[in-house]
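Subject: design request, 206 residues
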């Protein structure tokens, strides 16, 4: 099991691809490096970062993004994950687990949570707004202020403005998905880019 008190012993995630000077509390992240619970990772405008998490999920962080691993609990009681996206864009490829599961990403204006066993989705946080799109699975987006939620099915997306209810979801075009996919991919041969074979990385599983 992972919990806050054991963060130093068991990493929440491992760096499997990186480009640019991505940092964790000022420490430059390198291939094979680890990220702990409560850590904040910052990706510069010329960087990208991909993490394989303790449950096998993969988090890809786009340029100009800042994300905090608030909690990453895996154990007999299921999964309880909370990430905080201060700014920028991330892609979360969430794997299925046995038992109850909560996987959510919070922003200043609202919180997105996975409503299916697994999901492949995106969330973007900007000043006063957020956007969510689902490639696979279902994601729920809830306004911090109004408490209203919408459910986003596969191939759909929506946005949320500060103080308002989420906009009703709509089908996202391939062009919209391609744009966020491109931003969250670590470009091979880029500025100091490196990557590991994800299948070869050992992770902590239930």
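Subject: RE: design request

Done. Sequence follows.
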């Amino acid at each position: 099991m992972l919990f806050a008190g054991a963060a130093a012993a068991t990493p929440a995630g491992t760096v499997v691809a990186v480009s640019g000077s991505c940092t964790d509390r000022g420490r430059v992240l390198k291939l094979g490096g680890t990220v702990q619970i409560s850590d904040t990772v910052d990706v510069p405008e010329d960087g990208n970062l991909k993490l394989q998490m303790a449950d096998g999920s993969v988090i890809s962080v786009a340029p100009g993004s800042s994300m905090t691993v608030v909690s990453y609990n895996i154990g007999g009681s299921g999964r309880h994950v909370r990430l905080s996206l201060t700014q920028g864009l991330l892609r979360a490829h969430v794997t299925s687990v046995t038992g109850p599961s909560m996987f959510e990403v919070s922003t200043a204006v609202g919180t997105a949570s996975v409503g299916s066993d697994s999901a492949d989705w995106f969330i973007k946080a900007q000043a006063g707004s957020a956007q969510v799109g689902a490639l696979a699975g279902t994601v729920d987006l809830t306004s911090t202020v109004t408490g209203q939620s919408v459910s986003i099915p596969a191939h759909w997306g929506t946005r949320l403005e500060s103080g308002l209810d989420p906009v009703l979801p709509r089908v996202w075009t391939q062009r919209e998905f391609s744009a966020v996919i491109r931003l969250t991919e670590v470009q091979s041969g880029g500025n100091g880019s490196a990557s590991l074979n994800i299948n070869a990385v050992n992770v902590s599983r239930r």
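The first strand starts at residue 13 and ends at 19.
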